[in-house]
Design goal:
about 270 residues, alpha/beta, Lysozyme-like, six-stranded mixed β-sheet, two-stranded antiparallel sheet, 10 strands, globular
């Protein structure tokens, strides 16, 4: 997913982040900076992404609203590693898609250690990477606990730093662990991702099984800057960026997660 706000408004990219090594050290593999925010914001303001809001949008959102799952606040995992002058968050008007990631960290952790793992991720990003905050909007552990990630308010459309080129009008959900081919993906984790996606997308009346049109803000994504790309409303990181994230095992679970999220929205 910088100790001070840069002169130009930029959005950093959060790729797949390694977690704790055997010694407890964090090694980060994420790289890149989202460089075309202004052009993307102008395109978004012009309504270039879909589905466009219509007169029935409020009704659709109300009809297919899903309950908000329990979300553990940032205060649970923040400690004295937190920056004292947190830059103000940036916002979009709504969230029309979510991207699922994995953190590329060990899977055999105790769930009581999840706050510590998130703290290492945060410290690595604001320290070595000089980012303004953790990039993911939310993180989910193997026990299905959902944590607030990036600051700005879980109910709001906070602009994240998780998928280069597609941070606007999206939310990043990171599964804590490594879910490459053959890895076990805990049911509690996928259930939590489905519940979170159902709620966030339901606020805008978006069917998790649908596709949306998003404008790429950076040519380092799979699409040239300014390109309107059609992507799943509930996507894997690899759908928008050249990466194996969220891992083959978790990526294979996305169709079932979409169906579960749609059911939670009350869709047939």
């Amino acid at each position: 997913m910088r100790p001070r706000r840069p002169r130009r408004a930029t959005v950093v990219l959060l790729c797949c982040l390694p977690g704790l090594a055997a010694t407890g050290a964090l090694v980060l593999c994420a790289s890149g900076v989202d460089r075309a925010v202004t052009a993307s914001a102008e395109a978004l303001a012009a309504g270039a992404d879909q589905p466009a809001r219509s007169a029935d949008a409020h009704s659709a959102a109300s009809t297919h609203a899903a309950p908000r799952p329990r979300i553990v606040p940032r205060s649970v995992w923040l400690d004295d590693t937190a920056r004292h002058n947190q830059p103000p968050p940036r916002y979009d008007d709504r969230v029309v898609a979510v991207f699922v990631h994995h953190t590329d960290s060990p899977n055999g952790y105790a769930c009581a250690d999840s706050p510590r793992i998130i703290r290492y991720l945060y410290a690595g990003q604001i320290g070595a990477r000089r980012w303004d905050d953790i990039g993911y909007n939310f993180l989910v552990d193997r026990c299905g606990t959902i944590f607030e990630g990036r600051a700005g308010g879980v109910d709001r459309a906070v602009t994240g730093a998780h998928t280069q080129g597609f941070n606007h009008r999206t939310a990043g959900i990171a599964a804590i662990g490594t879910f490459t081919a053959g890895a076990e993906v805990p049911r509690a984790m996928t259930d939590a991702i489905a519940a979170l996606a159902a709620w966030k997308l339901g606020l805008a009346g978006i069917d998790p099984r649908s596709s949306v049109r998003l404008v790429s803000s950076n040519g380092h994504s799979r699409y040239r800057a300014g390109t309107a790309a059609v992507l799943p409303a509930l996507a894997g990181h690899k759908d928008g960026y050249m990466t194996n994230c969220p891992g083959a095992a978790l990526n294979d679970r996305l169709p079932a997660i979409r169906q579960a999220a749609a059911r939670l929205q009350g869709r047939p």
